[in-house]
Amino acid sequence: MMRARASGLHCWAAAILLVAEVPAVARDDAEVARGRYLAQIGDCETCHTDSGGKPFAGSRAIPTPFGTIYSRNITPDATTGIGGWSDEDFYRALHEGLDRNGEHLYPAFPYPWFTKLSRADVHSIKVYLDTLPAIDKKAPPNELALPARSRRLVGAWNRLFFKAGEFHADPNKPAAWNRGAYLVEGAAHCGACHSPKNIAGAIENERAFQGGVGEYWFAADLTGSALGGLSEWSIEEIATYLKTGANVRTRATGPMVEVIQMSTSHLSDEDARAIATYLKDLPNGGSAVKPRQDRVADHAISNHDSGRNLYLDNCVACHMQNGEGQRDVFPALKGSAIAQGKNPATAIRLILGGGAAASTSVNPNRFAMPAFAHR
Fold it and tell me: Are 268 and 41 a contacting pair, CB within 8 Å?
């Protein structure tokens, strides 16, 4: 009887302790969720997961003009991952571009953007990564041209092109604008792809967000340019595109498909609108000349019979004779930044190699365009 009573007391005491610990666990769970959300915005899993590999275990080949860089393992494995990294080590990596041994990280890892993240947000990301399964996988050696192999050269690059510093809100702008600026200029690192780069691979700041070429794709102009930019897009259209991969104007294609599926489709409605608010306020960085929206098939190619005939033979079934496309299925070419923008790289890639649209919870069907390189 006494043993039973004592056992009951132990159970009661344990129950009290569990109840007392619930708030702490809830706070930890909330921080893990916050870190996961920020990691999704930063598209961490995409770059740190090899094709067919385990999430966040690294070894994905990242092509650069200077050779191939292989992403690092960022699981909590103590030997090949970041399991032995302190919170301060992790903050230095994102804020200063230095690993735990003080060696420079290559700017293919977007620390020039992640430096804008607050210490609290960086800590949340680390808390989330620490919950992942530890995977023992070492990345292959980078395959870089001889000068680019030098980590000291990265230090010189930093002195020329990199300025560390967390984001500071503009008191003259509304909260949504500041939140959008924080995400675009920080975690989402939009300008890393959507800006032209100089010969050293650094962003041309005076032309930031005016579009950039990478892996033979053209990442669209995000400024208010009427020629391929967002001048005609509403805040709602931008937010819808980020969340679903499509809107009444276009569908995501090329590398942006992966960005939509792995990153921006997870944005909260509020954050998607905040990003759109900030992008709509970017200055017009391009030509004031609007695309010839009403002359796709009938006039713009009237002097090019071969092009007209190819279009009529191969494209009209989906994109229609007037280039207006089919709403919510096949995008319009009339007024399209891809078809009529300032850089034809993406249009050429799609015509030759085809492509599939993003699949999201709102738009699960992956409508595809066939390749025409064989013709």
Answer: no
Cα-to-chain-centroid distance, residue 60: 16
Q: How far is CA 134 from CA 54, 81, 153, in A?
A: 10, 8, 32
Residues 252, 365: one domain? yes
Q: Does the residue 232 lie in any domain?
A: yes
| 146 and 51, same domain (yes or no) | yes
Q: Residue 152 is which amino acid?
A: R
CA 345 → CA 64, 222, 315, distances in Å?
Answer: 17, 16, 18
- Span 106-134, pLDDT tens digits: 999 999 999 999 999 999 999 999 999 99
Element (H or E) spanning 70, and its range? strand 67-70
Helices (H), the chain: 2-41, 44-47, 87-96, 111-114, 119-129, 151-161, 175-182, 191-194, 235-244, 255-262, 269-280, 305-314, 316-319, 337-340, 345-353
Q: Is the domain of 224 the same as that of 348? A: yes
pLDDT, average across residues 346-362: 88
Residue 103 structure tokens: 């060696």
Q: In what order do the strands lie in the sheet with 143-144?
A: 61-64, 67-70, 143-144
Short-list 251, 231, 261, CA closest to 319:
251
Which of 127, 161, 195 terminates a domain? The answer is 161
- β-strand pairing of 61-64 with 67-70: antiparallel
Instruction: Note down the domain range covering 108.
Output: 44-161
Sign of CA dihedral 42, 264, 249, 364: positive
Query: Angle 119-129/2-41 helices, nearest 10 degrees?
Result: 120
Q: State pTM to two decimals.
A: 0.86
